[in-house]
Design goal:
Elements lengths: L1 H33 L23 H64 L9 H5 L7 H36 L8 H22 L5 H30 L10 H20 L6 H6 L7 H18 L5 E4 L10 E3 L12 E4 L1 E4 L2 E4 L1 E4 L1
Parallel strand pairs: 2-6
Antiparallel strand pairs: 1-4, 3-6, 4-5
């Protein structure tokens, strides 16, 4: 840009020099014409000589324009000098900002480098191959800090292992529930049968036996479920005696638990295929004497469904105690709010699949 400005200034000066020379010539011409007679004729008598000093020249008319151009060039020159100054200031500002960013980066990375140094110095069996790398770090870390960092890492590892076990357990549980979807005796299918029993079949029984109270119904259902558990345990005990296996989970080996798993599956499939009348023996063992056909069918269904639940892996068990149970695991038969319950008692038990509540208990008051 600066060479261009110099060229413009040179041109303007050349134009001004030309104008000054012309003005000088005009002044001389004016002086010569001062002594001439304006009306004097030439020797030929055919031409007249006129005073031209009063007539403006074309060059004289361009002088204001040239002066304006000169002013514009000076103004443009000042603008260029100002822009050049600003660029220099901006350049200095960028350098300052870069230095600030580099300083901020060093402040951020310092704690990370310190943590890496501490962790790399912690003694660990599989870190022996990195000793040469660890020696590259300068400085010494106090023993107290190393112990604290080591304990912190151990806790984190323990948390991760616990979380891994939980996820693995859930994955295995989901796999067990999702496998063999064509099995009509699987957990989800039997839980659906149980819901139909306590909603549809129970309401049908109440309409058929109008004298049946919630207290009587609760007592009957509990007796039937207890009889089912006793019946299943008697069958399993006989089988395990033949196989010389102790049917207790806490003292069984992995292979024995696998055998017990197969026994429950075989029994569940067998009990699902049996006719409904097969369960009349369990009803009799419970000491229940049905008064109507509807009540008899209801008791048989109770035994069938609970046996199929009790033969799941792990077994689904009925819990008849309200104390120690959370409100979230209970619901009122008439959909009352909890604040309106008065001395509630269980009509249908809380059903647990291992430690998981799969069906809420139904209370009445």
């Amino acid at each position: 840009m600066l060479p261009l400005v110099s060229a413009n200034i040179f041109c303007c000066r050349k134009v001004m020099d030309t104008t000054d020379s012309y003005n000088s010539r005009m002044e001389i011409s004016k002086g010569l014409h001062t002594y001439a007679d304006p009306g004097e004729m030439t020797a030929e008598g055919s031409r007249q000589t006129y005073d031209t000093s009063s007539q403006p020249s074309a060059y004289e008319n361009r002088i204001p324009a040239l002066e304006s151009l000169y002013s514009e060039v000076n103004r443009r020159l000042m603008q260029l000098e100002e822009q050049a100054t600003k660029k220099m200031v901006w350049s200095n500002s960028i350098e300052t900002r870069l230095e600030s960013l580099e300083s901020y980066y060093r402040q951020l990375i310092a704690p990370v480098n310190s943590s890496i140094q501490k962790i790399s110095n912690v003694s660990h069996p599989y870190q022996q191959e990195h000793r040469n790398y660890q020696e590259a770090f300068s400085g010494q870390v106090p023993q107290k800090d190393l112990v604290k960092e080591n304990e912190k890492l151990k806790k984190e590892v323990a948390k991760l292992e616990k979380r891994y076990e939980e996820l693995l357990s859930k994955a295995m549980g989901m796999h067990k529930q999702s496998e063999n979807m064509n099995d009509d005796s699987r957990l989800l299918a039997v839980l659906h049968m149980y819901n139909m029993l306590r909603i549809h079949d129970w309401e049908k029984l109440r309409q058929n036996v109008t004298s049946l109270t919630n207290k009587d119904g609760s007592s009957m259902i509990k007796k039937l479920f207890v009889a089912c558990e006793t019946h299943i345990w008697d069958i399993i005990t006989k089988i395990t005696e033949v196989l010389d296996i102790t049917p207790l989970d806490d003292i069984m080996t992995d292979s024995e638990q696998g055998v017990m798993h197969d026994i429950r599956n075989i029994l569940r499939h067998s009990y699902y295929k049996k006719q409904i009348e097969f369960y009349s023996e369990i009803v009799t063992q419970a000491g229940i004497v049905p008064r109507t056909e509807t009540e008899r069918v209801f008791t048989l269904k109770c035994c069938q469904i609970y046996c199929l639940l009790f033969l799941q892996n792990p077994p689904v068990k009925a819990e008849w105690e309200i104390q120690g149970s959370t409100i979230q695991n209970l619901e009122h038969i008439n959909r009352k709010e909890v604040k309106n319950w008065r001395n509630p008692a269980l009509l249908w038990p809380i059903m647990k699949y291992g430690e998981e509540v799969v069906e809420k208990g139904v209370v009445w008051d």
